[in-house]
Design a protein that fits this description.
The structure holds 2 protein chains of 2 kinds.
Chain A (H helix, E strand, L loop, with lengths): L1 H27 L3 H6 L9 E8 L9 E7 H8 L7 E13 L7 E9 L4 E3 L2 E5 L4 E10 L5 E8 L6 H9 L2 H33 L5 H10 L6 H25 L2 H4 L9 H25 L3 H9 L4 H12 L1 H17 L2 H6 L9 H11 L4 H21 L1 H10 L6
Antiparallel strand pairs in A: 1-8, 2-7, 3-4, 3-8, 5-6, 6-7
Helix pairs in contact in A: 1-15, 4-15, 5-9, 5-12, 6-9, 9-12, 12-16, 14-15
Chain B lengths: L4 H29 L2 H17 L5 H43 L4 H39 L10 H7 L5 H36 L3 H9 L6 H12 L21 H5 L17 H26 L3 H9 L4 H12 L1 H16 L3 H5 L10 H10 L8 H33 L3
Helix pairs in contact in B: 1-3, 1-4, 2-3, 3-4, 4-16, 5-16, 6-7, 6-10, 6-13, 7-10, 8-10, 10-13, 13-16, 15-16
The chains are: A alpha+beta, B mainly alpha.
């Protein structure tokens, strides 16, 4: 009884957690029309969707009394990918009817015409069937101009990778964001881990005045909200940038090309800032790990005449791989997913934006192209999720060791 | 015998000076020297472009490959510089000691030993000083100043004085922060405990836990995009507005379940007041995995004999959990609570990404952003006001800091160091 209940409750919770992912992936794989006109949950069953098609191509028509064609073929010949199939339900046409309010005048109304019913299109009788075949009959042989018609089709499910191809190849922003994110993330992970490993070793196994106090201060910086530091850091970087600009002016002939200005918000400033913000947690995790290593190792190495640098590189680093891994995955995820530091301190020219900022902008620009928005979000998540799942063990170990950093 | 300390001090100072000048120069030099790599990469890109007939413009290829070149060399240089630092300082340390005390190996090693720890912790201390400690203090002093530097408490008055313009927003931000602070951690903890307990009792528990866990890897902006599919929507009418003649579409799942038609376009997270709860839910969805993992491990650490004893006494599963297991992992619950509290206080990305920045959904962090970008009412004091809100944010974290400090001190004692 309790057993069944736990299965049900757990399944329900997992369901709630997974549905958003289903929404994300299914929306990203639908066509634009489908994604913006129907909910993702309808993508697995036939759904009535609106399309627009032209009856024929411009300038190829011989005069004829009867024109024949197929609506689905016409739609598929124009759109790329996502073959449209299904039952054609109705066509929306604009037609004039007598206006009940103003006798003697007509007014324009929109009307849905179901399959099999005759409608007047450019003076001809237009009839279509559920399978999409249409006939367009005129009194005498004519070569009508193509007519765009809005049609509703009970469309079979169709998934494709078009949105991914579009954001990755036709759109400059997503590839740029991807590269920028890598530029920011890799050094911002490796630098703090190098610096922190040395410091952690010193805090664990070296003697120097004020060691314990410094350690407590370093670790308690873990909870300082980063927002507190942004403005002064920004001021500092713009000070450095104006110095660099002056130096540039003095040293080079940049004035000729008008390229003296050194940007204060750059990748380098992001690396340093992320490094500083990541250090307290890194030192906390690594120091606790290194303290736990057997002390005899150190002592025997010292007796053999090894220097601290040798001990560190030959003994400590190889033994600390699990702790190093668990911090590096933390820092990687943290930097990759960070929005606020990049927003304040990172480069702000369009081609150098990191992924979270780009995604945040796309929430506005792709408001009506939800397939692209979701595809872009999927791309932004692939890297961290793969890293995360493949190094899950280390991540959990890190969480358990020092579940204190909030960012 | 001369005293060692002047030698140590002067050696240390020499090393410090060398580093201060050498590192930036090396970095800039390395960047300048490797610049041709960008062009080389761009050419490689053009070659590949011609080879495979890529569809996008040639210029894009060129730009993108040049950027990859920059990425490549910046990664190598940035990493190289940090290794270079440790290499060069150690070499300097050893050789300076050798020069200063030619005859005594013992004195040499004493000097090296005294300077070495500072070489190891030096970068850390400098970075933390320059990027956390000093900025935090200068923000504090900024918050007690007018824009021209004269001391004043006007920024705080602006937030706390009921007659002032910032009071309403600040009060709402505090109210909302308090709601977030209570609801998000407690919901995460309840779900986390529930999942940890349930997953242990079913065979597919590991799979279930993985699903709950994955959102932790996702950015808050990504989570916002994900939940937009559920909470937003409205549905754009196909091609033209149809006056109700065709089915009206609703693309937000929850909105659809609530029976909102397509004409009713407002996302659920934009609702007045109630929108807060939908934003909170996104954070809960992300962070529950964290609580779950910690609780899962803690529950496994509950001593077997207490569970056995409870079984013998005939405890049912609920008693087992509430009377036996929960009291034993109480301190873990507290740790998770404080961690989540710190996270919640700083939450910024989710409301910012979803543009949920109306007054009734303000949080301290989003209010700071508002203060910086949109406030004209603060006059010239914009940065100073920003600083004062940041200080208020800091104050809300203090109790957690104290608790964490106490916990870490205790933990260090347990580690015996």
């Amino acid at each position: 009884m309790t057993k069944t209940l736990s299965h049900i409750v757990l399944a329900l919770i997992v369901f709630i957690w997974v549905v958003p992912f289903v929404a994300l992936v299914s929306t990203s794989m639908r066509s634009e029309v489908a994604a913006k006109t129907s909910g993702f949950w309808t993508s697995f069953t036939p759904t009535e969707l609106g399309h627009r098609f032209a009856t024929h191509e411009r300038g190829v028509m011989e005069p004829a009394v009867i024109m024949r064609g197929n609506i689905l073929e016409r739609i598929n010949s124009e759109a790329s990918g996502y073959a449209v199939s299904g039952d054609v339900k109705s066509i929306l046409i604009k037609t004039r009817i007598a206006d009940p309010e103003n006798p003697g005048k007509t007014k324009l109304v929109r009307k849905l015409v179901p399959a099999g019913e005759v409608m007047d299109v450019r003076g001809g009788a237009f009839v279509f069937e559920t399978n999409g075949d249409f006939t367009w009959t005129f009194d005498q042989a004519t070569a009508p101009k193509p007519k765009n018609l809005d049609v509703f089709i009970n469309q079979d499910p169709a998934f494709g990778a078009d949105a991914y191809i579009e954001v990755l190849f036709d759109n400059k922003n997503v590839p740029n964001a991807l590269i920028s994110s890598f530029i920011v993330t890799i050094p911002a992970t490796i630098i703090p881990i190098t610096i922190a490993a040395f410091a952690a070793y010193a805090f664990a196994w070296m003697q120097f005045p004020g060691r314990d106090w410094l350690f407590v201060i370093v670790v308690s910086l873990m909870v300082v909200p980063t927002q507190l530091a942004f403005l002064p850091i920004l001021q500092g970087f713009s000070g450095i940038a104006s110095w660099a600009t002056a130096l540039n002016q003095w040293l080079t002939d940049c004035e000729l090309t008008d390229s003296c200005q050194v940007a204060s918000k750059s990748f380098a400033s992001l690396w340093i800032t992320h490094t500083a913000f990541g250090l307290p947690l890194a030192i906390y995790l690594l120091r606790n790990y290194i303290v736990g290593l057997p002390k005899e190792l150190l002592q025997s190495a010292r007796i053999d005449g090894a220097s601290h640098l040798q001990i560190f590189t030959r003994i400590i680093v190889p033994l600390s791989v699990p702790a190093l891994a668990s911090f590096s995955i933390f820092q990687f995820l943290w930097v990759w997913n960070d929005l606020i530091v990049a927003l304040y301190i990172g480069p702000n020219n369009s081609s150098d934006l990191v992924f979270p900022i780009r995604l945040q902008k796309q929430l506005g620009t792709f408001k009506d192209q939800l397939h692209l928005l979701n595809a872009s979000a999927v791309i932004s998540m692939i890297v961290p999720v793969v890293v995360f799942l493949s190094m899950q063990r280390y991540f959990i170990r890190g969480l358990l060791a020092g579940s204190v950093k909030g960012g | 015998m001369r005293a060692l300390s002047p030698i140590i001090a002067s050696n240390g100072f020499a090393i410090f000076l060398t580093i201060v000048f050498l590192l930036p120069i090396t970095a800039i030099f390395a960047f300048v020297v490797t610049t041709p790599l960008d062009d080389a990469m761009a050419n490689l890109g053009l070659w590949m472009h011609a080879q495979w007939q890529w569809s996008f413009p040639e210029f894009d290829t060129q730009e993108r490959f040049a950027k990859m070149g920059f990425a490549l060399r910046s990664v190598v240089i940035a990493v190289g510089i940090s290794f270079f630092y440790f290499g060069i300082t150690n070499w300097l340390n050893a050789s300076l000691a050798r020069v200063r005390c030619k005859n005594s190996l013992g004195r040499q090693s004493n000097i090296v030993e005294a300077i070495q720890p500072w070489i190891f912790v030096g970068p850390t201390l400098v970075l933390l000083l320059l990027f956390l400690l000093v900025p935090a203090l200068s923000t504090l002093s900024l918050s007690f100043q007018e824009y021209d530097g004269t001391p004043s408490v006007r920024n705080y008055a602006f937030l706390w004085d009921p007659d002032s313009l910032g009071y309403l927003q600040f009060r709402l931000a505090m109210r909302n922060s308090l709601m977030w602070l209570i609801l998000v951690p407690s919901t995460c903890i309840i779900f986390g405990l529930l999942i940890a307990v349930l997953a242990d009792s079913v065979s597919w528990g590991v799979v279930a836990k993985t699903f709950i866990f994955v959102p932790l890897a996702i950015s808050f902006v990504g989570a916002a995009v994900i939940w937009r599919n559920i909470f937003a929507g409205g549905g754009i009418e196909p091609l033209e507005t149809l006056n109700g003649m065709t089915p009206s579409y609703q693309i937000g799942l929850l909105k659809s379940l609530l029976g909102h038609t397509a004409e009713y376009n407002e996302p659920l997270y934009s609702l007045k007041f109630w929108g807060n709860f939908f934003l909170m839910w996104i954070l809960v969805w992300v962070q529950t995995g964290f609580a779950m993992v910690i609780f899962s491990a803690a529950l496994r650490g509950v001593p077997e004999d207490t569970i056995e004893a409870a079984k013998i006494d005939g405890a049912n599963p609920f008693q087992m959990f509430f009377r036996v297991k929960l009291p034993q992992i109480y301190s873990t619950v507290l740790v998770v609570w404080t961690t989540l509290v710190v996270l919640v206080l700083k939450v910024f990305d989710i409301p910012y990404a979803l543009s949920a920045n109306d007054d009734d959904k303000l949080l301290l962090a989003t209010m700071m952003e508002n203060a910086r970008n949109n406030w004209s009412i603060g006059g010239d004091n914009v940065d100073n006001l920003y600083a004062s809100i940041a200080v208020m944010l800091m104050l809300t974290v203090v109790p957690n800091m104290v608790f964490n400090g106490w916990r870490i001190r205790r933990e260090q004692k347990e580690l015996g160091n």
